[in-house]
Amino acid sequence: MRYISTRGQAAELSFKEALLVGLASDGGLYVPAAWPKLSFDEIRSLRGKPYAEVAFSVMSPFVGEEIDDVDLRRMIEEAYATFHHPAVTPLVQMGPNDWLLELFHGPTLAFKDVAMQILARLMDHVLTERGERLTIVGATSGDTGGAALEAFKTCHGIDTFFMFPNGKVSDFQRRQMTTIGAENCHAIAIDGSFDDCQSMVKDMFGHQSFASTVRLSAVNSINWGRVMAQVVYYFTAATALGAPEQSVSFTVPTGNFGDIYAGFVAKQMGLPISRLVIATNENDILARTLTTGDHRLGSVKPTITPSMDIQISSNFERLLFEAAGRDPAAVRDLMAALKDSRRYSLPDKMLRFIRDSFDAGAVSEVETLEEVARIWKYAGYLADPHTAVAVKVACDHAVPDVPMVTLSTAHPAKFRDAVRNATGEEARPPAWGDVSSGRTETVEHLAGDRARVEEFILKHARLTRGSVKSLTSEGVTS
Ligand SMILES: *Cc1c(COP(=O)(O)O)cnc(C)c1O
Questions:
Q1: 253 Cβ closer than 6 Å to some ligand 1 atom
Q2: How many CB atoms lie within 10 A of CB 299?
Q3: Alpha carbons within 13 A on the beta-carbon side of 302
Q4: According to its UniProt record, in which pathway does this protein act (predicted)?
Q5: How confident is residue 475, by pLDDT bands cut at 50, 70 and 90?
Q6: Would you say 127 and 133 are in contact if contact means Cβ atoms under 8 Å apart?
Q7: 195, 121, 114, 197: which is closest to 446 by C-alpha?
């Protein structure tokens, strides 16, 4: 499979290249040159199959001949063996035709594991083949850092550094990053905000000598490998509920638009999806875009659903590309307007295309807490606040005869305080995912100063390939 940029001015890439580069050199995002299709019978045959088998059927057309089937199957098996549920992403019934798709049975209790676990293995495989290595640097406001550090801890060709704003992530999230215990994984607490961390990452990519010395890379949500991995659970869920004979709708708590865009990809591949419903918190730019056609950046409001506290929804550009009939010039115009005037208005034709598949709804802070309480009261189920946002929006968009699947993106224990405030209940993590005590924390504490962080990375990144040792009693370094 070849990959093309949504802005049309970057080189076409192979799957392996797209996997390693992330962002295209013209500022665009890579998408497959054509959508692979699964036939009615092929989709029918996925019903009831183990997750790893469905994952192979869904992912292999995107990979093509570039990775041997035996290797791809092995990596998929290993990635999903880290999940603690035999179905990997089980469905839970919440009402006569309402379902939750639990995506949080992976090692860090949030849905980011689904993509990170396979992405890490794919990247390490490609680097090993080439005898190359990389350094991944990222900024996290919570879930991504833990999922990435956990997934990359066994990768011999990759060192991973994640910065987080000191004191501004939950204890549980911090401990997920600081108790990994592998010498190639580093958590860095920065004095500053998430935006400060993010802008240091950007500056490091701009600092050419540093970037090339460490071979800097990223694993942000625009990486095609992450999107591809998320397409799989739309197939397992829909076929379990009767697809392809029966069509199914999905509601997705949305931030960077990666997760719900994967649903759109599943639809392009032939899965009969009736509606894709975007659920947002008070950072409702996407809901407003769908209602009015006006895409207007505001400022980010912090909420109890921090993983959706976003204004710039990166993966939305991939949908714009399709809505524009794959015309990169139209995408370039919209992105230029967004950069210059912080807004664009969608041409009617594009808006109609988007509304053809998508609906949207936004939920306030008060409503989110009320919804967590309501779900507990009526279904005896503790939902994390991100999931509750989506459940509320799903209720507003449910139609008889079409199963509605709501994606549940985090275990309630990851957002224990909000869940307690709403219900009075303690959401306890499962023993295997409980980082709250025991292991020693290893964290570097640095000022929000790029030069200091680069110095730390240069000192600790293994600039040649080497095997990964795990740390047993390293102790706290700050
Ligand atoms: C990342 C995340 C989301 C948002 O997913 P996107 O792919 O960015 O839309 C929602 N909920 C949780 C718990 C997350 O960690």
A1: yes
A2: 6
A3: 7
A4: Amino-acid biosynthesis; L-threonine biosynthesis; L-threonine from L-aspartate: step 5/5
A5: very low
A6: yes
A7: 197
Residue whose Cα lies nearest atom 1 of ligand 1: it is: 307
Q: State whether the beta carbon of 409 lies less than 6 angstroms from ligand 1.
A: yes
Beta carbon of 113 within 6 Å of any ligand 1 atom: no
For the cut 80, the answer to whether the pLDDT of residue 470 exceeds it is no
Ligand 1 pocket, residue 157 CB under 6 Å: no
Instruction: Select from 310, 409, 415, 419 the residue to mutate for testing ligand 1; criterion: most ligand atoms less than 8 Å from CB.
Output: 409
CATH of domain 87-109+225-428: 3.40.50.1100
Q: What angle separates helix 224-240 from helix 51-63, to the nearest 10 degrees?
A: 140
Atom of ligand 1 nearest to the CA of 260: 9
> Which contiguous run of DSSP H or E holds residue 340?
helix 328-341
Cβ of 140 closer than 6 Å to ligand 1, yes or no, is no
- The amino acid present at 458, given as its one-letter code, is L
**Per-residue pLDDT tens digits for 361-383:** 999 999 999 999 999 999 999 99
Which amino acid, residue 381? Y
Q: Where are the domains of the chain?
A: 87-109+225-428
Secondary structure element (H or E) that encloses residue 21, with its range: helix 15-21
Contact between 309 and 301 (Cβ < 8 Å)? yes
Instruction: Give the span between the Cα atoms of 450 and 430, in whole angstroms.
Output: 38
Q: Which residue has the tokens 């809901």?
A: 287
Ligand 1 center to 258 CA (angstroms): 8
Residue pLDDT, tens place only, 182-194: 999 999 999 988 8
pLDDT above 80 (res 409): yes
